[in-house]
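Tokens for chain A. Residues wanted.
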């Protein structure tokens, strides 16, 4: 019997794309099974281990019986510690009552969008951008409206273009700084302009700052430092990147009081709550020893960024800005003449380097590649050699 699979799948799932990193990882792993040597530059996670105090606390809390449901919005002690951490870093006091914990920042993004966006609404997103925004918006029946991030502006917004895209249907402006995939960072002035637009048009701002503590110049500006806009800010952050805790699945949000119950209700009805022992262990993420481990990791990322970007800039046909934050390079490969998709596929097949095409992050990613530098210097040097040789044969 032939089954019409399409009719069995909900319409809202048609055209939804997953994270290309997971697909590329599966292809690369298959090639490894066939005996090929692959350098992995596709995945967006630190190659460091979770700091020891957090791991030890996780084991302790399991043994102490932290194995039951947690309150939906998270363990109060963790919500308080998150609020204290943010209040110490920023000029405004964050109230633990506005903090909500989810299994990963991605779930926070999804929960926020599902709770505040209606079918027919428009949500402005940077392009290229982390693809989960687009997917979450489409699954809510809303329309993602891309605004191009220009390399000529160090991958920041053109504010005339951003203002032009606002309509009576716009509900949220999504921002992400430091940014995946470009490593671009919005300035304090950029954030003020975004806040002004949000006030003028009565919009919300979803500010994803998951890379806020992985930066290579001045500390990135945060929407939490912009006065008079907190009542419109849906702030997203998490433990995955800065504490090398991707597999723990732990993210959080700070949301305005009038949106909190709806977001909490979505979490209640989807995942019930976040694992209890992971939340208890995450309290150790804010101690001095863990902060030291994070600082060392970022110092190592900086070395790799410099070696990798300098090396790429010596390859004819490739130019690469040095990212100001996160751990990705976003080199311009347009002068090689190969479209991004072909470049990434052929680079994997012929040279054994797994990278992501810029188009995995939106149509304006054409002409670019995303390379993670969360890999050893030795592998980065080897990847540079393979890319150099691959490009020379085009
Ligand atoms: N936001 C951005 C910009 C990301 O790059 C990622 C992960 O790649 C996430 C959110 C999701 O992080 P988590 O692992 O906490 O779900």
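Reply:
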């Amino acid at each position: 019997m032939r089954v019409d699979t399409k009719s069995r799948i909900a319409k809202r799932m048609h055209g939804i794309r997953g994270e290309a990193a997971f697909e590329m990882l599966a292809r690369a792993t298959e090639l490894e099974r066939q005996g090929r040597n692959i350098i992995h530059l596709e995945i967006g996670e630190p190659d460091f281990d979770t700091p020891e105090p957090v791991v030890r606390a996780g084991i302790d809390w399991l043994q102490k019986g932290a194995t039951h449901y947690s309150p939906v919005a998270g363990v109060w002690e963790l919500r308080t510690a998150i609020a204290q951490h943010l209040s110490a870093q920023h000029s405004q006091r964050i109230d633990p009552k506005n903090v909500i914990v989810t299994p990963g920042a991605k779930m926070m993004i999804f929960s926020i969008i599902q709770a505040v966006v209606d079918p027919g609404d428009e949500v402005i997103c940077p392009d290229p951008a982390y693809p989960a925004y687009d997917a979450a918006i489409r699954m809510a029946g809303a329309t993602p409206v891309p605004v191009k991030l220009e390399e000529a502006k160090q991958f920041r917004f053109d504010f005339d273009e951003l203002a032009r895209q606002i309509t009576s249907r716009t509900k949220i402006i999504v921002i992400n700084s430091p940014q995946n995939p470009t490593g671009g960072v919005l300035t304090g002035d950029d954030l003020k302009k975004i806040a002004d637009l949000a006030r003028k048009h009565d919009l919300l701002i979803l500010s994803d700052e998951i890379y806020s503590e992985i930066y290579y110049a001045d500390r990135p500006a945060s929407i939490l430092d912009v006065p008079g806009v907190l009542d419109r800010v849906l702030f997203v952050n998490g433990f995955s990147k800065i504490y090398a805790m991707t597999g723990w699945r732990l993210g959080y949000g700070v949301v305005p009081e009038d949106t909190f119950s709806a977001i909490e209700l979505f979490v209640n009805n989807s995942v019930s709550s976040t694992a209890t022992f992971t939340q208890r262990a995450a309290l150790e993420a804010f101690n001095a020893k863990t902060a030291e481990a994070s600082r060392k990791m970022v110092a190592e990322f900086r070395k790799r960024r410099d070696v990798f970007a300098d090396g790429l800039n010596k390859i004819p046909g490739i130019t690469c800005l040095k990212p100001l934050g996160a751990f990705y390079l976003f080199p311009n490969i347009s002068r090689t003449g190969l479209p991004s998709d072909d470049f990434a596929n052929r680079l994997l097949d012929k040279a054994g380097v797994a990278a992501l095409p810029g188009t995995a992050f939106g149509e304006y990613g054409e002409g670019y590649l995303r390379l993670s530098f969360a890999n050893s210097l030795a592998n980065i040097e080897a990847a540079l050699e393979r890319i150099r040789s691959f490009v020379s044969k085009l």
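The chain has two domains: 9-49+289-392, 52-286. The longest helix spans residues 288-313.
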